[in-house]
Design brief:
The structure is a homodimer of 233-residue chains. Chain A is built from eight helices and eight strands; from the N terminus they run αβββββαβαααααββα. The first copy, chain A, has 233 residues and is of the alpha+beta class. The structure holds a DNA duplex (30 and 30 nucleotides).
Chain lengths: 233, 233
DNA sequence: CGAACTGTTGAGAGGCTTCAAGCCTAGTGG
DNA sequence: CCACTAGGCTTGAAGCCTCTCAACAGTTCG
């Protein structure tokens, strides 16, 4: 499980696409590029662990990661998936707390590490950066609040349908409406907050009801409107 | 249900106790005081509603409010309770979204309204203010993430025990270890994410097990360590 | 004093979890 | 090349936790 770090291409290390950095001055952006460290991580690699002290935050330029908390009996609760354009680990950094989640690579990924010092420098010198950062955290907080309500009030069936739709919106579909992210049944369960067996049974039912089609881990959407109704949206 | 607004005393309108404003310059603090509008709200008053556009955020200098989302069939999901020293409505304001929660007074409260313009002014001119604000949002986000894990993985019994302990830590106990916040069974249920009847039954069990004592809405803590164990903390 | 709201208790139903067993697939090593 | 293993996937059965429905007592308030 040794973390295999390769050097990514220049293109993959480019941060100019990130909204967060749009308002930086040329000088600030140059400093950012100077301070950053970009690496390639293979599937299964852990970027940081719950309880660890972080030295910076990460910008994702390629790949997919899952962010989860470890609950009762070591059961994972997936908080969110992140992909290109997302940033992680900034929460614990800003609140000066230990990491409250673990970040694990699901799909080979390229991450750029930005040191805490650089983050502080930007906050101190560029109010538009702070403002943008505030917006990012606030949006994530809304999503968390929404999720609390869902998980507390909806049935497992409704939640699973909702999670599938959420994945559809956040990750690409190919031309046959098939989800381009490969998750185990257990990961789906850890996202919905239920048992693996329940996910399996419900997926089968969804398939019988012609809402989706299944081919191993490939999930193909057949009837999104109906799925919306099942999700009670 | 017309909102009865009285003028609070000067003391109740004082914001100097708020950590958030500690690093303001004298001039900035003066501006803040000039821009603020403080009012007294009676129990049952609604400060803002889910879906509404907000004109500023509020600092609570007295009383208690519940912040909740409206879920399936209008069932409330209480996100948190706030009290003196807390701020509300800043999330939607900063992310420029409509309010995603409703804020309702539980215990007669005094709130100071700070206009959006003033918030922006502070963000633009005082990086320490922005930084502090970032920390507040980030902490709240951690709490939300923790809550997601709890609600997804714990039983109703565990969650109720945890909520009681959370209330104990956030609101005062009198000298007989009795909780100084009066909630209906339904509100407790809406916090735990369960049915009112379940809360009633479980509270009775807790009482039988000598964990707590009940007198109407008064909850008295008899055995906190045991309650901790029940909560699986 | 009724109306409306809150609290309580019981019964029944059902959604989900857990346990257990077996299948399938991919990767490994002989 | 094939047996072997480990991990993921699937299905069935049993049972419990929790919800819903329903009835009723207590409380507050106009």
């Amino acid at each position: 499980m040794r973390s295999t770090i390769k050097r990514p291409t220049d293109e993959e290390a480019d941060l100019s696409g990130f909204q967060l950095f749009k308002k930086l001055t040329d000088q600030e952006f140059a400093q950012l590029n100077f301070d950053k460290t970009c690496s390639l991580y293979k599937k299964g690699n852990i970027i940081y662990r719950e309880g660890s002290r972080l030295t910076g935050f990460y910008c994702i330029t390629r790949g997919i990661l899952k962010i989860f908390k470890t609950g009762i009996d070591g059961k994972e609760q997936i908080i969110r998936f992140v992909k290109k354009g997302d940033i992680i680990a900034y929460r614990s950094l800003l609140s000066q707390e230990l990491a409250c989640t673990t970040a694990k690579v699901i799909d080979e990924a390229v991450l750029c590490h930005i040191p805490y010092q650089t983050l502080l420098y930007l906050i101190q010198n560029n109010w538009q950066f702070s403002h943008h950062m505030l917006q990012i955290v606030c949006r994530e907080l809304r999503e968390a609040n929404d999720y609390i309500t869902d998980i507390a009030q909806k049935t497992v069936r409704e939640r699973l349908a909702e999670v599938l739709l959420l994945l559809k919106d956040n990750f690409n579909l190919d031309n046959t409406n098939t989800l381009q992210i490969s998750l185990t049944r257990e990961e789906l369960a850890n996202m919905v907050g239920t048992a693996t067996e329940s996910v399996i049974r419900l997926l089968s039912e969804f398939k019988q009801d012609k809402l989706i089609d299944l081919q191993g881990r490939k999930i193909k959407f057949l009837d999104v409107p109906k799925l919306n109704r099942v999700a009670n949206l």
